[in-house]
Specification:
The chain is of the alpha+beta class. 34% of the residues lie in helices and 18% in strands. The longest helix has 18 residues. 28% of the residues are buried.
Length: 504
C-alpha cells in the first residue's frame, strides 16, 4: 500500500517534468497513433534513450509494417566522452544521432515518441521500498558512492532529461519521455530478433538480471508477435545476477559491471565439476529455491541488501569466503596501463575471440545442431563457444582457450561485406578464413575517431599498425615510428606491404 502511494506521488512529480510511465494517457495515445500509422502503411521513427546511469546513450529505430523494425543508430555516450561506462546525460550521442537523422531527412518533429530503457518512477519506488524494508542499516542504499552505475542521483537526472532533449532538439518545450519496464525491453528485443518471432508457437522468455525496475527475475509468454508478463519476483535483492555481481566484485577486486565478465572469462580454468569446488557446498545455502520456482536470498549470509559494498558479508559468509575486498581498494581502470601486456593489457585468463566465414567455422569447429536455425545465425553474435575439430586447433591457436573451446562470430557478406572480404583474403594468405576478433581499445572505450585510433596504436606495446578506411574509400596505413622492441618502426609491416604489392 505504501509503495502504491509512493508510486502515484512520484508519477505525478515526474509527469510535471514530462517523464511519463507506460500507463500514462500520453503513452496510450502514442501507442494508438503508432498502430494506426503502421496500418496505413506509413513509417515511424522511435527514439530510445538511457538518460542517466548504467551506460547512457541513445538509439533511433525505424518501424514500418512492410520493413519491420530497423535500427538506424545506437550510440553510447562513453564512445564520445572516453569515460568507460559513462553515466552522464548523452548529449554527444544525441548530437551524433541528430546528424545521422538529418542526413536521412528526419527532423526532430518526425520522431513519433521517445522511450527510456527504465521505468524510472517504478525504479525509484522500488529502491525506496528496499530502504524502508531494512532500516536503519539500509540508509546507505541512498548513497550514490555505493553503486556508481545506477543510483538515486541518476533517477533525479532522468527527470531533467525531457527538458534537455527538448532544448537539444530545438523544440519549444520538453520532449516527453516514456519510461519502459526494463525487463520488458530485454524480453521484447530477445524475442524480436529470435527465429521464434515469426511462429505461432508459444515461447517462454526468462529475464534473470542484476535488478530491474520492480524485481530481478521476470518470465514472459510470447506468441504470434505479442508478449505478456507471467511472473516477476518482488525483491531486487532476491537476484542471481546481483549475487554474481557482488561475489565477483568483492572476491575479484573489480567494480560491479567490470567484475562479471572477468569471472566469466576465467571459467575455462575450472574442471566443470561444481562438486570439486571447495566453496560450492557452503555457498549453495545462499539461496533458497522454492518448489514453485521462487528464489530467496539468504540474509543470514548476504548482507548487501542492508549495506551494499560498505559491508556486504555477514560474519557467516566471511567465514566461508574470507573478508571482502573493500570498495576503496577496487581495481582502478588506469592501473591497467602498468600491467605488462603487449596490446590489450588484459588478464591472462580472458580468452581472445575469433571471427570466421561460415565455411571456415564449419571446417574448424564443431557447430551444435541446436544452433543451426537460420543458417547457423546463433553463432553470429560472439556469445556461443565451440570445440575445434580434431587437428584444427593448431591452425588457429590464438583463439583456442584453456578448456579447448573458442568463442566464435560468423561474419556474412550481406551484413559486413568488408570484414567478410578481409577474412576471404586471410584464407588466401594463410590458408584459413579466421582472424582474432577484438575491439580497438586499450584499457578504455572503443575508439571512434582517427585520432583515438592513432593514440591506441601509440599506447600499445606490440601492435604493428592500423588500416583506416575513409568514407570515400581511400585507405590509410599507419605505424608507430618507434624501433624499441617489440616495435620495429613499421619494418615488418612495410615488408608485408611490399610482398603483397608484388603478389607474395
Amino acid at each position: 500500500m505504501a509503495q502504491g502511494i509512493g508510486y502515484r506521488l512520484l508519477s505525478a512529480h515526474a509527469a510535471r517534468r514530462s517523464l511519463l510511465t507506460a500507463a500514462s494517457p500520453y503513452a496510450r495515445e502514442r501507442t494508438t497513433a503508432l498502430t494506426a500509422k503502421l496500418a496505413r502503411g506509413e513509417t515511424a521513427w522511435l527514439l530510445g534513450i538511457g538518460p542517466a546511469g548504467h551506460n547512457s546513450g541513445v538509439a533511433l529505430v525505424e518501424v514500418s509494417a512492410a520493413g519491420g523494425v530497423n535500427p538506424i543508430c545506437n550510440n553510447e555516450e562513453e564512445r564520445y566522452t572516453g569515460i568507460k561506462n559513462c553515466t552522464d546525460f548523452p548529449q554527444h550521442s544525441l548530437a551524433a544521432l541528430m546528424q545521422t537523422a538529418a542526413g536521412m531527412g528526419i527532423a526532430p518533429g518526425d520522431i513519433h515518441a521517445c522511450v527510456a530503457s527504465w521505468d524510472y518512477v517504478q525504479l525509484a519506488t522500488t529502491l525506496l521500498g528496499a530502504v524502508a524494508a531494512e532500516l536503519p542499516a539500509s540508509r546507505i542504499l541512498l548513497d550514490p558512492e555505493q553503486f556508481g552505475a545506477m543510483n538515486i542521483k541518476h533517477i533525479r537526472r532522468a527527470t531533467r532529461a525531457p527538458a534537455q532533449v527538448g532544448r537539444q532538439f530545438g523544440l519549444r518545450g520538453p520532449m516527453p519521455i516514456v519510461g519502459m519496464r526494463h525487463h520488458g525491453n530485454h524480453a521484447y528485443y530477445s524475442y524480436a530478433v529470435s527465429p521464434f518471432a515469426t511462429t505461432e508457437e508459444p515461447v517462454l522468455i526468462t529475464v534473470i538480471d542484476g535488478l530491474g525496475d520492480d524485481g530481478a527475475i521476470s518470465i514472459y509468454l510470447a506468441r504470434g508477435g505479442t508478449m505478456s508478463l507471467l511472473y516477476r519476483n518482488s525483491d531486487i535483492f532476491d537476484s542471481l545476477g546481483g549475487f554474481y555481481s557482488m561475489i565477483s566484485s568483492t572476491q575479484g577486486g573489480w567494480t560491479i559491471l567490470s567484475s562479471e565478465g572477468r569471472y566469466m572469462g576465467a571459467v575455462a580454468w575450472g574442471d566443470s565439476d561444481r562438486m570439486t569446488n571447495p566453496y560450492y557446498r557452503q555457498l549453495r545455502q545462499i539461496f533458497h529455491f522454492a518448489p514453485s520456482g521462487e528464489i530467496r536470498l539468504n540474509r543470514a549470509l548476504a548482507n548487501w541488501p542492508r549495506r551494499l559494498q560498505a559491508k556486504p558479508y555477514t560474519p557467516a559468509l566471511t567465514a566461508i569466503l574470507g573478508p571482502p575486498i573493500p570498495l576503496a581498494n577496487m581495481w582502478n581502470p588506469k592501473s591497467l596501463e602498468t600491467i605488462n601486456r603487449l596490446v590489450k593489457f588484459g588478464e591472462p585468463f580472458r580468452p581472445l575471440a575469433s571471427m570466421a566465414t561460415l565455411a571456415a567455422a564449419k571446417a574448424v569447429w564443431v557447430l551444435e545442431d541446436g544452433a543451426s536455425d537460420d543458417d547457423w545465425n546463433a553463432y553470429s553474435y560472439m556469445v556461443l563457444t565451440a570445440h575445434p575439430r580434431p587437428g584444427t586447433a593448431a591452425v588457429v591457436p590464438a583463439v583456442i582457450h584453456l578448456d579447448n573451446t573458442s568463442r566464435i562470430q560468423i561474419v556474412r557478406p550481406d551484413t559486413d561485406p568488408f570484414t567478410h572480404a578481409y577474412l576471404r583474403a586471410m584464407g588466401r594468405r594463410v590458408g584459413v578464413e579466421v582472424s582474432v576478433n577484438t575491439s580497438l581499445n586499450v584499457a578504455g572505450p572503443v575508439v571512434q575517431t582517427p585520432e583515438q585510433a592513432l593514440e591506441a596504436l601509440r599506447r600499445t606495446k606490440a601492435m604493428d599498425g592500423i588500416v583506416m578506411i575513409a568514407s570515400d574509400g581511400r585507405a590509410f596505413l599507419a605505424w608507430h615510428a618507434v624501433a624499441t622492441p617489440p616495435k620495429d618502426g613499421g619494418a615488418r609491416l612495410n615488408n608485408w606491404l611490399a610482398a603483397w604489392r608484388h603478389g607474395g
